[in-house]
Amino acid sequence: MKLLSIAIPCYNSEAYMGKCVDSLLEGGDDVEIIIVNDGSADRTGEIAEDYVRRYPGIVKAVHQENGGHGAAVNAGIENAGGLFFKVVDSDDWVKKEAYLQVLSTLRELAGGAHTLDMLVCNFVYEKEGEKRKKVMHYRHILPEGRLFTWKECHHFTKGHYILMHSVIFRTKLLRECGLKLPEHTFYVDNIYVFEPLPYVKNMYYLDVNFYRYYIGRGDQSVNEEIMISRIDQQIRVNQIMIDYLVDRKQELLKNKRLYQYMRNYLEIITTVSSVLMIRSGTEENLTRKKELWRYLKAKDRKLFVWMRHGIMGSAMNLPGRGGRKISVGGYKICKRIFQFN
Question: What pTM does this model have?
Answer without folding.
Answer: 0.92
